[in-house]
Amino acid sequence: MDITLNQNINTNANQISLNEALENVPKQQRDVFMLKTHYNYSTKEIRKVLKIDEKQFWTYIHDTRKLLISSIQ
User: In terms of C-beta distances under 8 Å and separation of at least 24 residues, what long-range contacts does 21-25 make, across chains too?
Assistant: First the structure.
């Protein structure tokens, strides 16, 4: 039981850190990342709604991942 409790605490702490890190990501970049990773929108749908090209889409995804990794470590 203690192991499960500790795992839940660690998971909650990671979620808070992730949310805090996302606050530092520029809005449109964050929107692209969240729509793709959290809400599971297709790349095509996101690009159409946000009016961005494919290169910009993947740049946003890549840059956001890099920022999040560096913020959490």
Answer: 21/67, 21/68, 21/71, 21/72, 22/68, 24/67, 24/71, 25/64, 25/67, 25/68
Give residue-wise pLDDT tens across range 60-72. Answer: 999 999 998 888 7
Nearest to 66, CA basis, from 24, 14, 16:
24
Ordered domains of the chain (ranges, CATH): 2-72 (1.10.10.10)
pTM assigned to the model? 0.75
| Phi (first) and psi of residue 16, to 5 degrees | -65, -45
